[in-house]
């Protein structure tokens, strides 16, 4: 799927506008992960993504996500671009609205919704609800995720995402463990399942992240319909 020129121009204009306003880079993340269904490792996905969070003063900001998904099972490359507008109620609480575009094989899916996040101590929780539509139909996607660092760089977390598209339902849930490699990097592994109308399939995922910015990370996660298959 090709991202239309107007969206590219809008993104460039947004970045230039941020530079002119001397926005502060408060957070960012680079991520690489590989996931596959445990009973058939040919049904796999490689995700490469990057996000940056910019602040315009203490309350308002934007977050931009760009991801590439190598869908081994379909022999396709899918892309995802999302812009979040954020409003911080405090240092640890934020509300947001987002618009995104998923693209694969010449088609596109628009996704837009609202989100909220709450950090606490060494952990946090966030949730979202979104509407997705393409030329052939529409649906609803929602989810919640959270985690915390237990000590010595060891963390635990979990996530639950559900999508309903024109009578077809998908629910993905996973449990994650992570290990910090210094202050900014970590490796993680996740085990979960994807439930559909035809049954349930377990999946496994491994990956690594690198955080940067004054907050060393992001307030919100990336949003994409591709996160349902087979793991985000």
How does this structure look, described?
The protein is mainly beta. It contains one helix and twelve strands; from the N terminus they run H-E-E-E-E-E-E-E-E-E-E-E-E. The chain has one helix spanning about 5-20, and strands at about 25-35, 40-55, 60-70, 75-90, 95-105, 105-120, 125-135, 135-150, 155-165, 170-180, 185-195, 200-210. It has a twelve-stranded antiparallel β-barrel. The longest helix has 16 residues, at about 5-20. The radius of gyration is 17 Å and the shape is globular.
Strand order of the largest sheet: 1-2-3-4-5-6-7-8-9-10-11-12
Strand content: over 45%
- Spans where pLDDT lies below 50 across 5 or more residues: 1-5
Shape: globular
The largest pleated sheet is described as: 12 strands, antiparallel, barrel
SSE order: HEEEEEEEEEEEE
Class inferred from helices and paired strands:
mainly beta
Q: What percentage of residues falls in helices of 4 or more residues?
A: under 10%
Taking the alpha carbons of the first and last residues, their distance comes to 19 Å
Rounded radius of gyration (Å): 17 Å
Average pLDDT, all residues = 88
Count the DSSP helices: 1
- Extended strand count: 12
Strand and helix layout:
Blueprint (H helix, E strand, L loop, with lengths): L4 H16 L3 E14 L2 E17 L3 E12 L4 E13 L4 E12 L2 E14 L2 E12 L2 E15 L2 E12 L2 E14 L3 E12 L2 E14 L20
Antiparallel strand pairs: 1-2, 1-12, 2-3, 3-4, 4-5, 5-6, 6-7, 7-8, 8-9, 9-10, 10-11, 11-12
